[in-house]
Amino acid sequence: MEASVRGIVLRRRDSGEADRRLTLLTVEYGKLDVVAKGAKKSASRLAAASEPLTVGTYTLALGRRTKYVTQAALLSGYRNLRRDYDRLSIAVAFAEVAAGVIPWEEPDEGPVDFVERALAAIDGHTRPLAAAVWAQVGLLQMSGFLPDFSACVVTGVPVREANPFLSPLAGGLVSESAAAGFSDRFRVRSEVVIALLRLGELESPPDNLKFAADCFRALVPFWRTILESPLPCTEAALAELLE
């Protein structure tokens, strides 16, 4: 049985000498693990369409255990991402956490639409890091993991400190008195907390985000806790921001 789908490649891994295994996000089948046979070969018709951050139409052979890509046509490769290493780095980091948090094989148009809009924003925004942070906050919100940045998650009381604590284990903002109970607590600027709170209310990325790097840095520990898996692309992007 074959099916034609529109998909976004979130992740690519080598499989054997010539194949690639892809994490493909589709409307029709949700997030899938598929094999693009021969895609590692430069002359393969599947090579370009199996690159991460690619939108295309894919013909899938639906085997009982494994799904194979038999044909593919490239629709969008986000040209600016390919030309700008910093832009590409944060886009790949976004795709990595999207691949981790979106559930397997649950057909839903919402995640596909949001991921496409997010990648387009990172690709075209004059300040791509602002777009990337907005995208990560939106992904947390869509998946039900958005931390509470409005008040202390323990007491429910607003936090007025200049450098408050965040705790992934607690689920967001914690006051000075409550923070002692969470070993993963870390301090951030109050402006970062305000920015992250407001980003969750926006349908599109802001024109500018003053503390974008600090906001990105603050979200990484939450992703580590939520996904409980290695995040090499996210860690690499974070390391570059810290340089």
Describe the structure.
The protein has helices at residues 79-83, 85-101, 109-124, 128-143, 176-179, 190-199, 212-227, 232-242, and strands spanning 2-15, 19-26, 30-36, 55-62, 67-76, 165-167, 172-174, 186-187. By secondary structure, it is of the alpha+beta class. Helix 2 runs antiparallel to helix 3 (109-124), helix 3 (109-124) packs antiparallel against helix 4 (128-143) and helix 7 (212-227) runs antiparallel to helix 8. It is built from eight helices and eight strands, in the order E-E-E-E-E-H-H-H-H-E-E-H-E-H-H-H. The radius of gyration is 19 Å and the shape is elongated. The protein folds into two domains: 2-76, OB fold (Dihydrolipoamide Acetyltransferase, E2P); 79-242, Recombination protein O, C-terminal domain (de novo design (two linked rop proteins)), CATH 1.20.1440.120. It has a five-stranded mixed β-barrel with strand order 1-2-3-5-4.
